[in-house]
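Entry 14. Two folds queued back to back today. First construct below, sequence then structure tokens.
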Amino acid sequence: MLTQPTLRAWRPGDAATVLAAFSAPEMDRQADRPVDSLAAASRWIERRAADREAGTAYAFAVVDEADVPLGNVAVSAVNRVHGTAWVSYWTSLAARGRGTATAGLRALTDWAFTDLRLHRLELGHRTNNPASCAVARAAGFTVEGLQREKLVYGGVRYDVELHARLRGAGGAAR
């Protein structure tokens, strides 16, 4: 179990790790463009750096003690007027079930509330993804509602459960 994750910016040398992660089933849903080659993985990393530079989104590699990326946590759609943003996360196939996503999400949440001074973080997951729900709850995100048929993949519509966490709300699941 990963209890003390390190978050760091994605690096060009991480392209092979990113490519491997995106080759797992259903990971294509985690990217706006296909990540199906080393060049595409490098472009994915470059877009994360450009977003960071623009101040619109911040993606971090969740790394182990050997600095090997195990997953990604990100805060995007940053609205500084309202102090809100959207968070997301994914892990490599090998890191699943080890607490990586939860530990990474907790660290990202602390960072977003402290460094970005945000007030509210939101996330959503398909209702047929109980593992993602467990991560959100374990990181202190409260269920706020259901968005019916919000997403479509392969011609099938999926309901999305919305979660949020407020600054100062603590890390205990509710």
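Second construct, same run, same settings:
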Amino acid sequence: MNMMKYKGYIARIEYDEEDRIFVGHLAGIKDIVGFHGTTVNELESAFHESVDNYIAISEESGRSPQKPYSGKLMLRIPPEVHAAVATAAQVHGKSINQWASDTLKKAAHI
């Protein structure tokens, strides 16, 4: 997955073959914020400008900009899955939290 990070925001990057430009959109928020560029440097500048503008416009309009995910995740899983996760974490010498974080990171290809 192609992505960029800035001020805690993450953007998903795609290539538009027809227009021959890179296109990005902020991920992890409900507001729609997009940007584009023809080079990586141009794309990165447009990304930073879009994030900065999004934050400024949100604050000017009297509402807080949406924040990317906090990093806290509550899961409801069957007890047998919980037991298996606890065992796997212990076997790897990790806490359940660290084991789950590492496993989810791999699954998300980060």
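Quick look at the second one. The domain at 73-110 is CATH 1.10.1220 (Arc Repressor Mutant). The chain has three helices and four strands.
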